[in-house]
Design goal:
The complex is a heterodimer. Chain A is of the alpha/beta class. Chain A is built from 22 helices and 18 strands. In chain A, the strands form three sheets. Chain A has a six-stranded parallel β-sheet, sandwiched between helices. In chain A, about 55% of the residues are buried. Chain B folds into two domains: about 90 residues, Alpha-Beta Plaits; about 70 residues, Alpha-Beta Plaits. Chain B is built from five helices and nine strands; from the N terminus they run αβαββαββαββαββ. Chain B starts with 11 loop residues before the first helix and ends in a 6-residue tail after the last strand. Classes of the chains: A alpha/beta, B alpha+beta. The interface between A and B is medium-sized, with 36 and 31 residues. Chain B: InterPro entries: Acetalactate_synth_ssu (IPR004789), Acetolactate_synth/TF_NikR_C (IPR027271), Acetolactate_synth_ssu_C (IPR019455), ACT-like_dom_sf (IPR045865), ACT_dom (IPR002912), AHAS_ACT (IPR039557), AHAS_small-like_ACT (IPR054480). Chain B: It holds the Pfam family ALS_ss_C.
């Protein structure tokens, strides 16, 4: 059988039902195989759109996403999604075409050293040198992408090898002696963590994206409720604990709530679960949580004590560890009353510093009001994707995520242009869900072209552009930290998004009136097919509160 | 070291001491890797990306065709050695990492020194060479090439001795090392 037909067999064996890609010279054989392989292929307009769509699909479904591109520019266009998937631990397999082996290293047409270019951005990568290796390599790629701490895997297949004839034998097991991710947590350490939790007077559960990707939200909720622990989450962890909830402090970090950041600041014990103490969380590291001891549960040993020393590290899968931790904790019979004082301190912060903004007195739409309207209109029940910037932070602050895998954004890399293609991928993976993209007027233009894909394929995403006419987050920083010298942040009035939507074959709308906003949002959500809504909001609204870069969390402003 | 999974719980003090441990001593990491294209690039790239400086690096085959050994040294006073080994361990092609204890390790490097040696200095050079158990591997009217094998300290001591006499150039392999005793490195 042709090697590319074996590729199709392997994809099917891995349960792949849809891929996102764009053909070119170096993957023509692969596309010939797709012609009648029975795998849905979504033809994107730009490889980056396909890569982010595969990420959105993976984040929404929990399955491995697949993205394809040809050699050279096809592969280099995938670099951003690859790095994005690395930073946010998204399981995606990238299949890139490569030029003929005899031409490698000669600067051949559309040649790029894909493995070399992507090496710092992948969990693993391999260039095929023998076509008989292809089935093994594909199954290894899926195994590595989805297990342990998930991440991107790149397989680079030279075009001549993909046409080769091989004797295909289904692969039943992978053998990777250098790759054995830890699963079970150490029992003694789990007991030690339970004791620490039982003894803590001011504990906080600090939850990251690992709880979402590790499908451990139920287990987390059980532990939190049983111990009556306060819970906060990172940008990536939103939805891991149901919001709103009396034990939910809101997001922490740079634009988190004061209650969450102050609780971290005064905590005597912080239990980090699938989180990595990123600089957007800690603020000034030397001032971070000065009174706390740390339990750190993570599947990646290299995260333990990378930024913050862990007193009780537990390496393994949160889904397995949390129930054991809960069981050990229960046996200790800790009195919930010991947390009363802590809760009244937290309640004081919550009462004194709720998330707030000054609403307009006329019909102008505040971006926060827009997000609240979208939250109400969707009943909190949609899959929400976002781009990167102010609108992303307002979504994280004002949209309550009741469950995991409903919030899909680019956290680590902060990729503008992520939201629209990610929504497309999420909708393909979850066709019965309402999928909404919250975009910025700057970000959305970075992968706008995928609206054509949505129109052609009937992928009914609803895109709300929080249009303030600026690269808003940069403008905010220039206002606050650069004396208001606005340098290259004014996006003007272009393009006309409504006309653009029409040109792409989607429905365009423009919303400018606060008084009818929620109804208008509902109308947009109820419109068939892809919809692009240009919502004109207050141009110079800032995201608050905020940890000023280089400052301690306790000195939040705004 | 770098056994997989979570080890038994050490005491709090041990953990605090362990965290970001900068030992101040030189570390010799002996790394077994799959003999596949690009593995050295992955290891070297990881060091560059994470800001770890490699002092010396030596790569060669092992008794198993499918496996190569990378021996590299770095300064434990500059880098948290724990982060270095954990990040290395994440590379799929890396099979095993051992942070060799200096006391339980035999380490050697080979250096070639090209020295000026005319009739005035040749005798002194040869004398130093003998003290260091060096071998003269090339000789011409006005120069010598000396081969020195030993620990880095020894090589550096030799360098200090011959430099004033006229060092033309020096080529070093970087250290390779093997654990003492019966157990495998």
């Amino acid at each position: 059988m042709r090697a590319v037909d074996a590729v199709m067999e392997c994809l099917k064996a891995e349960g792949v039902d849809v891929v996102f890609g764009l053909p070119g010279g170096a993957n023509l054989p692969t596309y010939d195989a797709f012609y009648d392989a029975g795998i849905r292929h979504i033809l994107v307009r730009h490889e980056a759109g396909g890569g982010h769509a595969a990420e959105g699909y993976a984040k929404a479904t929990g399955k491995v996403g697949v993205s394809l591109g040809t050699s050279g520019p096809g592969a280099t266009n995938l670099v951003t999604p690859i790095m994005d998937a690395m930073m946010d631990s998204v399981p995606v397999v990238f299949l890139t075409g490569q030029i003929r082996t005899e031409l490698l290293g000669t600067d051949g047409f559309q040649e790029a050293d894909t493995i070399g270019i992507t090496m710092p951005a992948v969990k693993h990568s391999e260039m095929i040198v023998d076509p008989r290796d292809i089935p093994r390599a594909i199954h290894e790629a899926f195994h590595i992408a989805r297990s342990g701490r998930p991440g991107p895997v790149v397989l680079d297949i030279p075009v001549d090898l993909s046409r080769a004839d091989i004797a295909y034998q289904p692969v039943t097991a992978v053998n990777l002696p250098g790759y054995q991710p830890a699963v079970e947590g150490n029992a003694k350490q789990i007991r030690q963590a339970a004791k620490a939790l039982a003894a803590a007077k001011r504990p906080v559960l600090y939850v990251g994206g690992g709880v979402v990707s590790g499908d451990a939200a139920e287990e987390l909720r059980a532990l939190a409720l049983d111990g009556h622990f306060p819970v906060t989450a990172t940008l990536m962890g939103l939805g891991a604990f149901p919001a709103p909830h009396e034990q939910w402090l809101g997001m922490l970090g740079m634009h988190g709530t004061r209650a969450a950041n102050y609780a971290m600041d005064e905590a005597d014990l912080i239990c980090a679960i699938g989180a990595r103490f990123d600089d957007r969380i800690t603020g000034l590291l030397s001032e971070f949580a000065p009174s706390a001891k740390f339990i750190h549960i993570d599947v990646d040993p290299a995260e333990i004590s990378k930024n913050v020393p862990a007193h009780i590290p537990i390496i393994g899968d949160a889904k397995r560890i949390l129930p054991q931790l809960l069981e050990e904790y229960r046996e200790l019979g800790a009195e919930k009353a010991r947390l009363n004082e802590w809760w009244s301190r937290i309640d004081g912060w919550r009462a004194e510093h709720p998330l707030t903004y000054t609403d307009s007195t006329d019909s102008e739409i505040r971006p926060q009001f827009l997000l609240q309207s979208i939250c109400r209109a969707t009943g909190g029940d949609a899959i929400i994707t976002s781009d990167v910037g102010q609108h992303q932070m307002w979504t994280a602050q004002y949209y309550d995520f009741p469950q995991p895998r409903r919030w899909i954004n680019s956290g680590g890399l902060g990729t503008m242009g992520f939201g629209l293609p990610a929504a497309m991928g999420a909708k393909v993976g979850c066709p019965d869900q309402q999928v909404v993209c919250i975009a910025g007027d700057g970000s959305v233009q970075m992968n706008m072209q995928e609206l054509a894909t949505c129109a052609q394929e009937g992928i009914a995403i609803k895109v709300f552009i929080v249009n303030n006419g600026y690269l808003g987050m940069v403008r905010q920083w220039q206002e606050l930290f650069w004396d208001g010298r606005y340098s290259q942040v004014d996006m003007g009035k272009f393009p006309d998004f409504v006309k653009l939507a029409d040109a792409y074959g989607a429905t365009g709308m423009r919303l400018t009136d606060k008084n009818t906003l929620e109804d208008d949002v509902r109308a947009a959500l109820a419109t068939d097919g892809p919809v692009l809504v240009d919502v004109r909001v207050t141009p110079e609204e800032n995201v608050y509160p905020m940890i000023v870069p280089g400052e301690a969390a306790r000195n939040m402003v705004g | 070291m770098t056994e997989r999974g979570t080890k038994d719980l050490p005491s709090l003090e041990e953990l605090e001491a362990e965290v970001g441990r900068r030992t101040g001593r030189k570390h010799i990491l002996s790394i077994l890797v799959q003999n596949k294209p690009g593995v050295l690039t992955r290891v070297a790239g990881l060091f560059a990306r994470r800001g770890f400086n490699i002092d010396t690096l030596a790569v060669g085959p092992t008794d198993d065709d499918a496996i190569s050994r990378i021996t590299l040294t770095l300064d434990g006073g500059v880098h948290p050695i724990d982060q270095v080994t954990k990040q290395l361990d994440k590379l799929v092609n890396v099979l095993k990492i051992r942070d060799l204890e200096p006391a339980d390790t035999v380490a050697r490097e080979l250096a070639l020194f090209k020295l000026t040696a005319d009739s005035a200095t040749r005798a002194e050079v040869l004398q130093i060479c003998e003290i260091f158990r060096g071998k003269v591997v090339d000789v011409s009217k006005r120069s010598l090439v000396v081969e020195i094998t030993g620990t880095t300290d020894k090589v550096e001591a030799f360098e200090r001795m011959v430099r004033p006499l006229g060092l033309i150039e020096m080529v070093r392999t970087g250290e390779i090392a093997v654990a003492r005793g019966r157990s495998e490195t």
